[in-house]
Each structure stands twice: as structure tokens, then as C-alpha cells.
Write a structure and sequence with these properties.
- Pathway: tRNA modification; 5-methoxycarbonylmethyl-2-thiouridine-tRNA biosynthesis.
- One of its GO terms (biological process) is tRNA wobble uridine modification.
- Keywords: Cytoplasm, Nucleus, Repeat, tRNA processing, WD repeat.
- Belongs to the WD repeat ELP2 family.
- Among the domains are: 11-240, 7 Propeller (Methylamine Dehydrogenase, Chain H), CATH 2.130.10; 241-331; 350-487, no CATH class.
- The protein has a four-stranded antiparallel beta sheet, with no helix packed on it.
- The protein starts with a strand and ends with a strand.
- 51% of the residues are buried.
- The longest helix is centred in the middle third of the chain and has 11 residues, at 418-428.
- Strand 34 (389-394) and strand 35 (401-406) form a beta hairpin.
- It is elongated.
- By secondary structure, the protein is mainly beta.
């Protein structure tokens, strides 16, 4: 069998150095996501590559393309390491070198190719130093008197200059001398707060121009014209932002782009007639939930702008023929570990739940048009909550309904509004005919003080969707109304599942005592508890109904496995086996025929159990040993078993009956490391549509991924 990555979703880390747009490719954007570097395509609004190479417990803070057409990329992380990546064909990258030396987090990178062809990198770190690297070797360490926050390199009149901005509101200018060491040549004072961004350019007048941005809300333009004497003068002070300015970038036409904590980007241009710098355009978010624009970048042709925001989102702005900028679709994703995901019963879209970003999101296809291949995008954000999310579960009894659980005692149920049905039809080609008799809301809003999404009856006269929604629409116009709250658990909701016939919802909560560890069964018609199953003594980690809804499988933090059986609509626990694994059991899954189920544990083992369907008892059938702790398992047809591990790896095993009618397991697919997650896999779900082998996964590395599995020709 062969595996092909289909889709990656991931948000951006909160850093003013987290984005870099490659000049040799008008669409290639690198950005930091958790401990990954992701490569996005601005034209298709998709993420094409995932670079795994930083440590599992770090955060990537800075990324920078080497702008020489080689496709090389530099990234720095919170552990003080710097990675150099090399591009190969077919969207693949390899880790060429790892530079170590910093004793604390790398916060900013700058890179140039010197006149002699050597690669020169400057790195700022929280250890109070700026290090200079030449072809991967540290050639100088500058001990700063104040914490450096940003740096910039430039070649001017055959000399290399380095600017460093620090928390003392100073910009310090260095020059590379004949002894291959940088020496201080100027100190630029004037800002009243931390220096957050620096960028050089060589102007049409052949002057070296440096832009500096600071938390004092101002941008200063510095100029010098002689690389030997270096007399720096202040040309202009740009005031236009209402809060601190976090980054500045020169564009290809010598316009300046700035991004600020006031949620805006401003394009500044020098007017030759008045000799003044003026604001040419301003873009950004008015209202909404964003708190800052961190890093802004130009496209190589200067016709597009991108920035990342506080909540990990992106805004892409494209210049129209009349010179204005309009918002365009761009890739998106969670900005925190993704705790759970599920397909809707028809396999049309994925619902995912992010922990700290406190959102549930919907990803589905955009068909583009006749003859074009569909691509996956975020098309809805039903819930923007006030608590960290823990689980999500579709309710099969009504189309486009789901329940979610968070670090609160309440389960919340949501129904899709009418505009989501329309969007799904327009973007994905899904039938928009309503098959249920529920009355759907026209629009939804969430009160400023409150957690419950409210329905609005007024019809929305908005135009039809022609592409995936941008961040503004996702935050404000793609909510789902809350239709029910389920009260019953004494602690934070941890796991839930719904019967395949949609009549029963099962849920569990975090528990350190047996009296809180009961599974509650809810009626999806009345939203009242039907029954409580006090089986386990600690948190029930996962619950799964069999495909015929006759059995309920549960696994617990206490290492016990239980099966409950439905008899005349009353559930009875038929067997509970304790200490079945040596470590916590993270996951369970039924086989397609309900004759077997699998359990995955931190003890690096998968146990496959055989079920006696007459009485609900079970016995160990076979065991699969893995290289890493197992965190997710998922069965599909023909005894194919997907396995996700703590190190981010994913495997597929195929079971076949041996001579003694025991399932014998062989590895069908080992996913290549470069397409796998970089942290623990939190959930695996197969698309329920028949004849389709598509596996969805989510992880603590902030990403949601889709993989297509095919038989080898």
C-alpha cells in the first residue's frame, strides 16, 4: 500500500519573525507552527510541505528564506537551535545542518549571501547574544549590553552591515571589518521603547536605508550614503499606528510595510514631490477577536501582503487593478494542540477541536470548478469558546449536528445554520436539500459576555461564496447556534461518542475517584440522561459504540477495559478486565465486523481482542509491538488498523487469519517521517464513505492532516 498526503492545516506561532515569503517563488510562504516549519502556497491557499527536524518540546520562533533562488531555509527555535533546510524536487526538504551555541531561545534571524558566495546568518537570542554564522559555523558572538530582539543584514558598497535592536530602545549598527569580525560603528537613539523590527534596503539614490519599528508606536527611517565613514541621519519618523509596531518590511518598489499590535498593516511610500513619507494604504481587522498583527511580508511582485495574528491566523491581501487591497483566501489551522477530530457521518467534512485556541473548526473540499482538482480548506468555525476544548462528536440523528466537550462540566450541542448548508453546497457540491424537519437559524452571534452562540432569525442577504472564507468571516460569520446544554458530569468533560443510529450519546469526565468516573448515556431526542454506567475507577479516556450499537467499549486511565451490552434499551456491563496493559490505555477501536476491537497503550503495545457477541465477553487474540507509545488506533474495513504514536509516527497494519484462526498482523504502510506529525497523535479517523481510504489525524503539533491510502499498482 502507498500513502499520499492530501491536506495539512496548522496555525502560526505568535512571533514577529514567524513568516518569510520566498522571492524566487511568488507563492511559497514559510511559517512557524508549533515545533514545525510549514510551507504554504499563496496561490492555492494550501499547505504543501511540513519540515520535521526541531526537537519535540520546542517552539519554532523564527524562519527566513535564503533569497538566492536556492530554496534554502533557516529556522530557529526556543531551545537555541538553528536549522538549515535544503529544497529538493517534489516539495520535499531535507535538514542540511543544525547550528547550536545559543543558551536560550532564538527570537530572530537574518540571512544574506555574501559577495564571496558564503552564507551569512545573524541570530538574536534570549541569552543576550547575537551570533554570526558563516556557512554553518559560528564566527562571532556579540555580547549585548541589553537584550537583543531583532537584527538585519545588508550588503552596501561591498561592505556587510548588521543592525541590532534591543530593549534599551537602541539600534546598534555594526560593520564587517577586514579581520572578518563585526565592529560597532554607530548607535542610533530616538525610540522610546523596545525595538521590535528592522529592515534594510538600498534606495534609488544608492543610499542605505534602515527602517526601525518599536513599541513606542513609531517607525524611524535612517539613512547613510558612505560605507566607510557611516554618518547616519534620521530621515523621517512615521506615526500612524495606535499601538506598538512589531515588524517592518521593504517591498520590491521601495514601499514600506508595517504591522502593529493595533491589528493593522500600513503601506508607507516616499513622495518625491514633498519629500515626505505618507501612508498609502491601511489594512487589518476592525473588531473581531484578534489582538495583533505580528509579522507582515510582501509577495515578490509587491501585489500581495500577508500577516499572522495573535490567534495564529493569517490575512492575505491582494492588490486589485485600481490599487486597492482586498482580502483573499489563505491557509489556516489551529494554533494549539488539536485534541480531537471526527468525520461527519457522510464523510463530507472534518470537525476538529483545538485545546488552548478554544475553537472547533470544519474542513471540507473546495471544488474550484470543472476539470480542477478539489482542495481542502477551513470552511467553518462553529465554536469560539472560553474553555480549552477536549472532544468533539457528530450526532448522526440530525444532519450537520455535533456535540463538544471542554474543560467545563457542560456538553454543548450545535446545529448548522442555513448559511453553512449553502456554503457546503457552493464550495463542496454537497446536496443542500434539507432532509430533517428542524428549523435552521439564518445567522448566529456570540454575546460579548457569554459562551453560548445565539441564533438570529433575520435572513442574510450576503453574496454567494466563491472560495473559502477568510479569517474575518470565519471569526464572525461562521458560528453555529447552540441548541442544547447537557448537565450531569461533576468534572471537566473528557471523552464522548455517539451511537451510529444517532439516538444515544455517551460521555465521560476527568476523574480521580470512582464516583466521578461513570459514563453517562444521553438521549439525543430529549437531551436528558438515560443511564449512568459506573464501571471504571479513573478517567474514561475513550468510548466507542460497535457498528450495530449493541455494545459499548470503554477504556480508562486505570488500565481497565470494559464492554457494556444493550438489552431492551438498558445497558449492562458484561465484562470489565483490569490491568490489561502495563501503562495507561489511550485509545480503542472496533473492527468493521464488530468481532474484534483494538486497544493502544503507552506501554508500546496494541492488544487485539476477540469478542463473544452472544454475551459480550472478550479475550486477547493477538498483540502488536510498536517502537513508540501508542496514542491512537482506528479500524477500517478488511482489518486495516491505523496506529498513531506519541512521537508523531503513523502506521497501518493489516490483519489476516493464521492457521489457528488468530489474526496475524503485518505492516502495510509505515508513513515517511517527513509527512508525519512531530508530536503525539491525538486521534485517527477513517472517512466513513465506502470505497474511500482516507485517514484523518490530529496532533499536539497543532496540525490536522489527511492521507490517501492506495493499493500499489
Amino acid at each position: 500500500m502507498e500513502v499520499e498526503p492530501v491536506f495539512i492545516a496548522g496555525g502560526c506561532n505568535r512571533s514577529s519573525s514567524a513568516i518569510s515569503w520566498q522571492k524566487s517563488q511568488n507563492a511559497a510562504i514559510a511559517f512557524c507552527c508549533s515545533n514545525l516549519v510549514l510551507i504554504g502556497n499563496a496561490d492555492s491557499a494550501t499547505i504543501e510541505s511540513s519540515l520535521v527536524g526541531h526537537g519535540p518540546d520546542v517552539t519554532v520562533n523564527a524562519v527566513k528564506w535564503v533569497q538566492d533562488g536556492s530554496g534554502r531555509l533557516i529556522s530557529g527555535d526556543s531551545d537555541g537551535s538553528i536549522n538549515i533546510w535544503t529544497y529538493h524536487s517534489n516539495r520535499s526538504y531535507s535538514l542540511n545542518a543544525t547550528l547550536t551555541g545559543h543558551l536560550a531561545s532564538v527570537t530572530n534571524l537574518s540571512v544574506i549571501v555574501a559577495l564571496d558566495g558564503h552564507l551569512l546568518i545573524s541570530s538574536c537570542a534570549s541569552d543576550g547574544t547575537v551570533r554570526l554564522w558563516r556557512d554553518g559555523k559560528c564566527v562571532q558572538t556579540i555580547e549585548c549590553t541589553a537584550l537583543p530582539l531583532c537584527s538585519a543584514l545588508v550588503i552596501y558598497q561591498d561592505r556587510v552591515f548588521l543592525a541590532v535592536g534591543d530593549v534599551d530602545a537602541q539600534v546598534i549598527l555594526y560593520r564587517l571589518e577586514r579581520d572578518e569580525q563585526f565592529a560597532r560603528v554607530a548607535v542610533l537613539n530616538g525610540h522610546g521603547d523596545w525595538i521590535r523590527g528592522l529592515d534594510f534596503m538600498v534606495s534609488e539614490k544608492k543610499e542605505c536605508v534602515l527602517a526601525s519599528a518599536a513599541q513606542d508606536r513609531l517607525i524611524r527611517i535612517w539613512v547613510f550614503s558612505d560605507a566607510e565613514s557611516v554618518h547616519v541621519s534620521l530621515e523621517s519618523v512615521l506615526a500612524g499606528h495606535d499601538q506598538g509596531v512589531l515588524s517592518v518590511r521593504w517591498g520590491p518598489d521601495q514601499q514600506l510595510l508595517s504591522a502593529s499590535m493595533d491589528k493593522t498593516m500600513i503601506i508607507w511610500s516616499h513622495d518625491k514631490d514633498s519629500d515626505l513619507w505618507i501612508s498609502m494604504a491601511q489594512t487589518g481587522e476592525v473588531g473581531g477577536h484578534n489582538l495583533a498583527c505580528y509579522c507582515a511580508e510582501w509577495s515578490p511582485d509587491g501585489n500581495r501582503l500577508i500577516c499572522n495574528t495573535y490567534n495564529g491566523a493569517f490575512y492575505l491581501w491582494s492588490r486589485t487593478n485600481d490599487g486597492r487591497f482586498t482580502s483573499s483566501p489563505i491557509f489556516s489551522g489551529h494554533s494549539s494542540p488539536v485534541a480531537s477530530l471526527a468525520w461527519n457521518p457522510e464523510g463530507q467534512y472534518i470537525i476538529s477541536a483545538g485545546e488552548e485556541d478554544q475553537t472547533t473548526r470544519i474542513f471540507s473540499t473546495w471544488t474550484h470548478g470543472p476539470g480542477l482538482s478539489p482542495t481542502f480548506h477551513e470552511i467553518g468555525r462553529p465554536q469560539m469558546h472560553g474553555y480549552d476544548m477536549s472532544c468533539v462528536c457528530p450526532i448522526a440523528s440530525v444532519a450537520h449536528r455535533f456535540a463538544s466537550g471542554a474543560q467545563e462540566k457542560v456538553i454543548r450541542v450545535f446545529d448548522a445554520p442555513r448559511n453553512f448548508i449553502q456554503d457546503l453546497h457552493q464550495l463542496s457540491g454537497v446536496d443542500s436539500i434539507e432532509k430533517s424537519d428542524i428549523v435552521r437559524a439564518e445567522n448566529v452571534f456570540c454575546p460579548e459576555i457569554g459562551l453560548s452562540n445565539k441564533a438570529v432569525s433575520e435572513r442574510d442577504d450576503r453574496s454567494s461564496m466563491t472560495g473559502p472564507p477568510d479569517e474575518s468571516l470565519l471569526m464572525q460569520d461562521k458560528l453555529w447556534p447552540e441548541v442544547a446544554k447537557l448537565y450531569g458530569h461533576g468534572n471537566d468533560v473528557f471523552a464522548m461518542t455517539c451511537a451510529h443510529d444517532g439516538t444515544t450519546l455517551a460521555s465521560s469526565c476527568s476523574s480521580k475517584e470512582p464516583n466521578q468516573a461513570a459514563i453517562i448515556l444521553w438521549s439525543t431526542s430529549t437531551w436528558k440522561p438515560k443511564q449512568s454506567l459506573p464501571i471504571h475507577s479513573l478517567t474514561v479516556v475513550q468510548i466507542e459504540f460497535s457498528h450495530d450499537d449493541k455494545f459499548l467499549l470503554s477504556v480508562s486511565r486505570d488500565r481497565s477495559i470494559a464492554i457494556s451490552m444493550r438489552v431492551d434499551d438498558v445497558w449492562k456491563t458484561t465484562m470489565c478486565l483490569e490491568k490489561t496493559h502495563h501503562r495507561i490505555i489511550w485509545s480503542c477501536s472496533w473492527s468493521h465486523d464488530d468481532l474484534y476491537f483494538a486497544t493502544g497503550s503507552r506501554d508500546k503495545k496494541i492488544h487485539v481482542w476477540k469478542v463473544d457477541r452472544s454475551n459480550g465477553s472478550f479475550s486477547l487474540d493477538s498483540t502488536i509491538a510498536t517502537k513508540s507509545a501508542v496514542t491512537a488506533v482506528a479500524f477500517t474495513d478488511d482489518y486495516l488498523l491505523g496506529v498513531g504514536c506519541e512521537d508523531g509516527s503513523i502506521y497501518i497494519y493489516k490483519g489476516q487469519f493464521g492457521s489457528e484462526k488468530i489474526l496475524v498482523w503485518e505492516s502495510a504502510v509505515d508513513f515517511p517521517k517527513e509527512i508525519c506529525h512531530s508530536r503525539a497523535v491525538r486521534a485517527l479517523k477513517w472517512n466513513p464513505r465506502q470505497g474511500v481510504l482516507t485517514l484523518a489525524s490530529c496532533s499536539s503539533d497543532h496540525t490536522v492532516r489527511l492521507f490517501s491510502i492506495q493499493e500499489r499498482p
